[in-house]
Amino acid sequence: MFDLPRPIIHKNIYIGGLGISDPKPLDEKFTALMKKGRNGVIIISLGTIAPFHVLPQKVKIGFANVIKSMPDYHFILKVSKGDTSTPSFFKDGSNFDFIEWLPQKDILAHPRLKLFVTHGGINGLEEALFRGVPVVVIPLFADQFRNGRNVEKRGVGKVIGFFCSSMNMLFLVHLAKSLAFCLDITYSETIRSAIQEILSDDSYKQNAMRMSKLMQEKPFSAEQRLVQWTNFAIENGVLDVLHVQGSRLNSIVYFNLDVIAVVVIVICSFLVIIFKLLKALGRKLFVQKVKQN
């Protein structure tokens, strides 16, 4: 439901949301955390591939300034184990907690959670939208840029940062260097503007709840699709009837090279004819002018 409609073949079976189970009760630690904040709780989790500590210093300061300016909300920041650099940027204020691990699926279902700030991984987005939680996406690489665009098109959140879309780093050291160059310079204001817009505009929450309803009430769950189609494939073997004919085309036909060649030949022939006509007309006018002289 989250992905935008597009033409697909019958062999493609969507199983988005696979593994999203009923939420479990939070333990005492997280129950206490979710009670903090007069207006609710906001979670900031940027995943494991690019954790919070690899972000440039200016970005961390930007988040710290935003959190400090919103005392009515309590922020839960997911950090890596052993991360000692990030807490040093959050010395002032008391409306935040650092967590090395959190039960994301369960905490996203908590009624006091107001917003989920994420890197835009598809699993986290589906878990949040399945519970009707609006999101702020900071895409870092790969499919996260497309996921961010889908978030804005669905009206369930905002995208901030706009890291270079061509960035697809394999090493965190290269990632950290690129982040400093690619991220929007107005860190604090950009982050604050996106968060406050979602919190003040009810349409984001309404759209997220609408998406949640669609995801939960669609005719077949991801688990049902996976099991039924797996059994179907086992029982029937290779399904040649679902094979796409386009995969059997040679390169010339597949890429329409024959059609392109005809079009190019026609255009070139037309240009040659025009050139020859203009050349003949010019020669005729030149001869007439010489005779007159």
Automatic annotation (TrEMBL):
It catalyses: glucuronate acceptor + UDP-alpha-D-glucuronate = acceptor beta-D-glucuronoside + UDP + H(+). Its EC number is 2.4.1.17. It comes from the Eukaryota. GO terms for molecular function: glucuronosyltransferase activity. GO terms for cellular component: membrane. Its main location: membrane. It is an enzyme of class 2 (transferase). It is a single-pass membrane protein. Gene3D superfamilies: Glycogen Phosphorylase B. SUPFAM superfamilies: UDP-Glycosyltransferase/glycogen phosphorylase. Pfam families: UDPGT. Keywords: Glycosyltransferase, Membrane, Signal, Transferase, Transmembrane, Transmembrane helix. The chain crosses the membrane at residues 252-275. This is UDP-glucuronosyltransferase. It comes from Cylicostephanus goldi (Nematode worm).
